[in-house]
Design a protein that fits this description.
A: about 350 residues, mainly alpha, two-stranded antiparallel sheet, 14 helices, 2 strands, B: about 525 residues, alpha/beta, Rossmann fold, 3 domains, six-stranded mixed β-sheet, 17 helices, 20 strands, globular
Chain lengths: ~350, ~525
């Protein structure tokens, strides 16, 4: 009989911060290659060619910037062991107020102000959306995973209601959606990519601020300690509930900003039903955060990889090599391998006969 | 399976069976184990005999835990061999050890809270392919728990159990696994004294029936109370093995601490001369316990600047909750806490910390430090040292100063606390709290995790702080020696009330003990 013996490692494997994501990616790709070949006969060479194209695609820059921002948002929450699965909803609340600012507020006449206010309001709404889950978790002890997840749907449906009803546009050729925002309000594209300067600036500023927050402020240290031992926070005289709310709210704030970046820089309008038009950045961001091993500095790299995989999925769909599901096969495979490799990095497993 | 057969022996007196006692069950030969930077075990050899209780004694960081972890297959040695019943064996994981009848119980229970006692035991057995019917397990738990005098309902969910009950379940599981050699790695060190004594009897009986027990501890009294032989480790080497019957505490101290043994003395520390002003006044305090009942019932205490007040009492008489209420971690239901002439009742921990109150909690690795974080981070987490921006340069200087002053053994101030030995972790905590304590230090079992020499050193540090900086100290301890040694004034707590008060000069051990259990 074969026995598996699992023992916790005393010391982490050297270079694990770098090796774990790498191994997961390679294994995940091989795995999805096999699955795709078996399910729809896509050859591995076609698959690799598509992926390589995706890595050099001009659209990858836009996704990378957006996913970096989502990744930063989630790294912040995950560091405190607060599981924000609701980035998707926070992004949509951000999109909602950005749309309002651009389409319905008086600010639309002053483009620069409209953009700034749009970003700020998006941050506030995103923060508020996460704050709800934070308060429930901290003071009513309701697990934040289902709450943040369910709030995603509430956000979709609020937007659906608005787009279907009062916000429905006049020049939509029968589609149920809002009008597009005027060109002058759109974020400025970088060269011939679909990415925008505003997104780049926001990523840089947010990245630096969050890194500084985690390193050099008591709030950051408290969030980090929250993830390792909340009891000591109590002994030190620091409110644990407040720290939880803080971690979730700050995370939501950044996700909210993503909503404005996505709206002003990419969609320019909201389309009904929202849940079918979403790019799923909020969920992809979870993959980015884990691939970065919760290190802010690694988030852009992880975001670039995930973006490329996402785009290769789209490319395959266009090339008739499979549906959009191929992308989910990739992502699922990578995340699965990642979880397994993480276990091996923390536990040693011996096989015995 | 070593089923506890109904042998009609009197478990209270125990003549060692002369025939079996010389027979070796386990021989450890020249074991060496190195970790990066340290040699944890250097050529260590010990024998474990059938039917004996062997104490493995040593100060914090002597290598005791490493040795038992090797015997249990958690670590593999770099050199040496293990012989079980004359046969050379290799133990690569706990399963190998269990197959040989060697089972370890550690200080932290490894039970699943949401399962019942018997379910936990059965899962533990199944993992190692020992199958036992539920009814048999339940019966066994019931029988033994009655014999030991610690009641456990085998059907109750584990989260209902106290620490003592959990540890008994762990030991029962080990025995059901077929343990012939029971490794108790500080497994009973942290139990309240009264309950510890019940375990002693149980261990004794297990040995009398032919089992072997290795008791790993840093408390000499624990070894003297229950062991037949005592092997002393120091800095990864065996200093020697002595028969309990033919040794003295002084001799063992010398073996454990070498030159430092001279520093060990339970003489009362010099009395301080408190100032007239009261730093802390507690008036008719009522506090609820974890189950909603009043556990502190109308306590009045006054502590002057520079005075050290110790609260003696058997565990579970409200001292833990009293200390928690003072530091703001537990709600005061009735009564008042006056600190420096201001009412601070239910004002919260942060408020008190900022006013200069230090706090040394029970179970330091849970409530005192964050193991995954560095020494520096464990300092910066206190509002006293950083308010919003963390000046790491300043924190580093402070860490270096404390490392220097308290002789904390660490590679650097940026080392994660979990890589330090138990004694050094405690020093990180104590040094930090004494820095915070400008006016008052409250503590609960402040030296429980420490070996004698380090414990006495910590007491001296606390006393000096009180005398030099006129800091008021209020602490509770289950260790009466500690209360007697450190206090200027002694209070006795029983059932949530202060039932006696003595100045250090008039305190008599017998009288205090009587009040404690009254």
């Amino acid at each position: 009989m074969i026995h598996l013996i699992v023992v916790k490692r005393i010391k982490p494997i050297p270079f694990s911060g770098f090796l774990i994501p790498l191994i997961s990616l390679i294994t995940g790709l091989l795995l999805s290659g096999i699955i795709l070949y078996l399910s729809s006969g896509i050859s591995f060479i076609d698959l690799m060619a598509t992926i390589l194209t995706a890595f050099r695609s001009p659209t990858v820059v836009k996704d990378t910037l957006i996913l970096t921002l989502v990744g930063i948002s989630l790294v912040l929450a995950f560091t405190g062991a607060v599981w924000n699965i609701g980035s998707e909803g926070q992004i949509h609340m951000g999109m909602m107020v950005s749309a309002w600012t651009a389409l319905f507020s008086a600010l639309a006449d002053i483009p620069i102000l409209a953009k700034i206010v749009g970003i700020l309001l998006a941050a506030i709404l995103g923060a508020f959306w996460a704050f709800i889950a934070g308060v429930l978790r901290a003071y009513a002890k309701v697990d934040e995973v289902p709450v943040t997840l369910m709030l995603n749907y509430i956000a979709y449906y609020i937007l659906d209601m608005l787009v279907y009803g009062p916000w429905r546009g006049k020049r939509t050729w029968g589609y149920i959606r809002t009008d597009e925002i005027p060109k002058i309000l759109r974020f400025q594209r970088i060269l011939n990519t679909t990415a925008t300067w505003e997104a780049l600036i926001l990523v840089i500023i947010t990245g630096i601020l969050v890194w500084l927050l985690l390193r050099y402020t008591t709030i950051g240290l408290r969030i980090r300690v929250l993830g390792s031992n909340p009891d000591i926070l109590r002994s030190a005289g620091i409110s644990v509930p407040l720290t939880i709310v803080m971690a979730l709210t700050l995370s939501g704030l950044i996700s909210g900003i993503v909503g404005s970046v996505y709206f002003f820089g990419d969609t320019y309008r909201l389309s009904y039903p929202l849940e079918e038009h979403t790019a799923n950045y909020g969920y992809l961001g979870i993959l980015v955060a884990w691939l970065s091993m919760l290190d802010i500095r690694a988030v852009p790299v992880a975001a670039y990889i995930v973006s490329s995989l996402r785009i290769s999925g789209t490319l395959m769909q266009i090339g008739g090599l499979g549906g959009v599901e191929t992308m989910f096969v990739f992502i699922g495979s990578v995340l699965l391998t990642y979880s397994i490799v993480r276990i091996f990095s923390e536990y040693s497993v011996k096989i015995r006969f | 399976m070593t089923e506890a057969t109904a042998k009609p022996t009197n478990i209270f007196s125990s003549p060692p069976s002369p025939s079996g006692i010389q027979e070796k069950i386990v021989e450890v030969r020249n074991i060496t184990k190195r970790f990066p930077g340290v040699t944890a075990l250097d050529n260590v050899s010990i024998d474990i005999r059938k039917g004996e209780v062997l104490a493995l004694l040593g100060e914090n960081g002597a290598g005791k835990s490493t040795l038992v972890k090797i015997l249990y297959g958690i670590y593999t040695p770099d050199g040496g061999e293990i012989i079980v019943e004359g046969r050379k064996v290799s133990i690569n994981d706990p399963k190998d050890a269990i197959g040989l009848g060697i089972v370890m119980v550690s200080q932290s229970p490894q039970l699943i809270d949401s399962l019942s006692v018997s379910e936990n035991i059965i899962i533990g057995l199944k993992r190692y392919h020992v199958i036992s019917p539920v009814s048999r397990v339940e019966e066994y738990v019931k029988k033994i728990s009655e014999e030991v005098g610690i009641k456990i309902d085998p059907r109750v969910k584990v989260w209902h159990l106290s620490y003592t009950q959990k540890q008994l379940v762990e030991i029962l599981r080990a025995i059901l696994l077929g343990a012939r050699v029971l490794l108790l790695d500080e497994a009973i060190t942290y139990l309240p004294l009264e309950e510890k004594k019940k375990f002693y009897k149980f261990i004794r009986r297990f040995a009398d029936q032919g089992g072997s027990v290795v008791l790993i501890t840093h408390k000499i009294y624990e070894a003297m109370d229950v062991a037949d032989r005592i092997t002393v480790l120091r800095k990864g080497r065996v200093v020697g093995t002595v028969e309990k019957a033919s040794t003295t505490i002084d001799e063992i101290r010398k073996m454990m601490f070498g030159e430092r043994a001279k520093e060990i003395s339970y003489e009362r520390l010099p009395l301080s001369t408190p100032e007239e002003k009261y730093v802390l006044s507690i008036k008719d305090l009522w506090v609820r316990g974890d189950f909603g009942e009043f556990i502190v019932r109308g306590v009045n205490i006054n502590v002057k600047a520079g005075e050290v007040v110790g609260i003696a009492g058997v565990a579970g008489n409200g001292q833990r909750e009293l200390i928690q209420a003072i530091i703001g971690l537990r709600k005061v239901e009735r009564g008042k806490i006056i600190f420096l002439d201001k009412d601070v009742t239910n004002k919260g921990t942060k408020h008190l910390r900022k006013l200069g109150v230090g706090y040394i909690p029970d179970i330091p690795v849970k409530y005192g430090v964050s193991l995954d974080n560095t020494i520096m981070e464990n300092l910066a987490i206190l509002p006293t040292f950083a308010n919003f921006y963390i000046d790491w340069g300043k924190i580093k200087d402070l860490a270096k100063k404390l490392i220097d002053e308290y002789k904390i053994m660490t590679p650097s101030p940026a080392t994660p606390v979990k890589l330090l030995s138990g004694g050094n972790i405690m020093k990180v905590l104590v040094s930090r709290e004494l820095t915070v304590a400008r006016n008052l230090l409250v503590a609960y079992n402040p030296t429980r995790a420490l070996d004698e020499a380090t414990a006495i050193k910590v007491r001296k540090i606390i006393k000096e702080k009180a005398m030099r900086d006129k800091v008021a100290v209020l602490f509770a301890s289950e260790d009466l020696d500690e209360v007697m040694q450190l206090s200027d004034r002694i209070l006795v707590i029983n059932s949530g009330k202060i039932v006696g008060e003595f100045t250090a000069e008039e305190a008599e051990r017998g009288k205090i003990e009587k009040l404690m259990v009254m």
